[in-house]
């Protein structure tokens, strides 16, 4: 497209209420000649004499200014359709991209920079697209200071207006919005989650595995899983099962997806459960200690025991990496075995007992009660371990809630009966 017989359109840079901004190349210029920017009044505003007058005043004023820190005006012209202002093109990052880059580098901007960013973003929030919104949410999920309430509200409104049109970026916006740790509008959360449930099959077919697993994770972070209806969960289940996306997932994405179903209290369909089991069994040798514990904990939370083959493979995997387990992971894997009714081999239990003894001083009240309950449930009642657990429990009594106290009381009562 040629404008004014002199400029060839490269792309549109943006648009506002009065006009739009275009990136153009000067015709017949050298290959490495810099592009220029054309600012033109929208055709719908051409008949508005006040707009035309303001545009002409801007052109005349800017043409008189010359300074290294001011964008230079090249010319001003009009044709039968509209008015044009030709400006020097100054390359730079979009503000949301700059904030995103800071966040990726774990750089914490100063309060003055953040305030200036928020003020500018608020002025142009109506022009943000979903990518701008997603990057801004991500940035503030990493920044030390939370987003200003008025900007937070403006970006939520803009996200709602854009998301209803459909986009593969809705998953990214939803996930990064949740990561900000700010309280989002419950209606918006429900709407975005519903849109994603509807469109998740397309996301899975495109093999955007991060978006798919992040969506499930984000649902675990909002109240009641965004109150999705049964038919919406059926859409999510069907998208995962029908596309075979699990096979393309990274190890962590696969394990987090299974854990998310468990955390949300949604037992996957038999077909999807088989896919999860096949994928985990195929990769169990490469899973990290965290991934292995996540899988055990997920199956236990779902109250669904996988095949004996997978349970034994998980036990061997945990056994190889017992030394890497944190106190919480020791408690979770023991709790998981007990809930699933799985009796680990003696060597595996002794290894977990030794790790528990090493890290017992760092156990929380809940970890301690779960561990005591689990050891009794799987019939691992070593005298040294029992005595150490008892001393630790005595020191932590004030940390226990009612369930923790019940677990510990039952565990020690059972141990006493077994000794007798």
Number of strands: 6
Terminal-residue CA separation: 92 Å
Order of helices and strands: EEEEHEEHHHHHHHHHHHHHHHHH
> What percent strand?
5-15%
Order of strands, main sheet, comes to 1-2-3-4-6-5
Largest sheet: 6 strands, antiparallel
Mean pLDDT across all amino acids: 87
Structural class: alpha+beta
In helices, the fraction of residues equals: 55-70%
Question: What general form does the structure show?
Answer: elongated
> Any low-confidence stretches, pLDDT <50, length ≥5?
none
* Radius of gyration over C-alpha positions, nearest whole angstrom: 30 Å
Number of discrete helical segments = 18
Descriptive notes:
The protein is an alpha+beta fold. The protein is 59% helix and 9% strand. Helix 10 runs antiparallel to helix 11 and helix 13 packs across helix 15. The longest helix has 20 residues. The model has no long low-confidence stretch (mean pLDDT 87).
Concise account of the structure shown:
This protein is α+β, with helices and mostly antiparallel strands and 420 residues long. The protein has helices spanning 49-63, 95-104, 111-123, 130-142, 149-163, 170-179, 186-205, 209-220, 230-243, 251-263, 270-283, 289-302, 308-320, 327-340, 346-359, 365-377, 383-395, 402-419, and strands at residues 2-3, 7-15, 19-26, 36-41, 73-78, 83-88.
Features:
six-stranded antiparallel sheet; 18 helices; 6 strands; 9% strand
């Amino acid at each position: 497209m040629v404008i004014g017989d002199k400029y060839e359109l490269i792309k549109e840079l943006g648009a506002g209420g009065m006009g739009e901004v275009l990136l153009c190349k000067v015709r017949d210029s050298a290959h490495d000649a810099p592009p220029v920017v054309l600012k033109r009044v929208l055709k719908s505003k051409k008949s508005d004499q006040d707009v035309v007058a303001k545009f002409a005043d801007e052109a005349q004023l800017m043409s008189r200014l010359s300074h290294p820190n001011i964008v230079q005006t090249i010319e001003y012209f009009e044709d039968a359709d509209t008015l044009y202002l030709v400006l020097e093109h100054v390359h730079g990052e979009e503000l949301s991209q700059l904030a995103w880059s800071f966040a990726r580098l774990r750089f914490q901007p100063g309060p003055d920079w953040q305030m200036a960013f928020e003020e500018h973003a608020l002025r142009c929030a109506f022009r943000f697209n979903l990518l701008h919104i997603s990057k801004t949410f991500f940035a503030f999920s990493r920044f030390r200071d939370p987003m200003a309430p008025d900007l937070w509200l403006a970006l939520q409104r803009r996200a709602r207006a854009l998301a209803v049109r459909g986009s593969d970026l809705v998953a990214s916006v939803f996930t990064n919005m949740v990561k900000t740790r700010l309280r989002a509008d419950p209606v918006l959360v429900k709407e975005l989650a519903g849109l994603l449930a509807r469109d998740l099959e397309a996301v899975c077919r495109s093999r955007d595995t991060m978006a798919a697993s992040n969506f499930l994770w984000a649902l675990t972070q909002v109240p009641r899983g965004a109150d999705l209806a049964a038919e919406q969960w059926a859409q999510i289940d069907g998208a995962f099962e029908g596309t075979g996306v699990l096979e393309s997932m990274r190890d962590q994405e696969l394990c987090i997806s299974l854990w998310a179903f468990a955390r949300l209290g949604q037992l996957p369909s038999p077909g999807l459960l088989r896919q999860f089991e096949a994928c985990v069994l195929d990769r169990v040798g490469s899973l990290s200690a965290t991934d292995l514990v996540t899988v055990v904990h997920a199956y236990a939370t779902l109250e669904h025991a996988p095949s004996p083959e997978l349970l034994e493979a998980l036990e061997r995997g945990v056994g190889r990496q017992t030394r890497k387990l944190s106190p919480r992971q020791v408690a979770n894997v023991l709790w998981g075995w007990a809930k699933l009714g799985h009796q680990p081999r003696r060597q595996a239990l002794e290894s977990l007992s030794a790790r528990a003894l090493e890290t017992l001083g760092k156990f929380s009240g809940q970890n301690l009660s779960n561990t005591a309950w689990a050891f009794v449930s799987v019939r691992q009642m070593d005298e040294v371990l029992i005595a150490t657990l008892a001393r630790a429990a005595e020191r932590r009594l004030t940390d226990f809630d009612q369930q923790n106290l019940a677990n510990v009381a039952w565990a020690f009562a059972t141990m006493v009966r077994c000794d007798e």
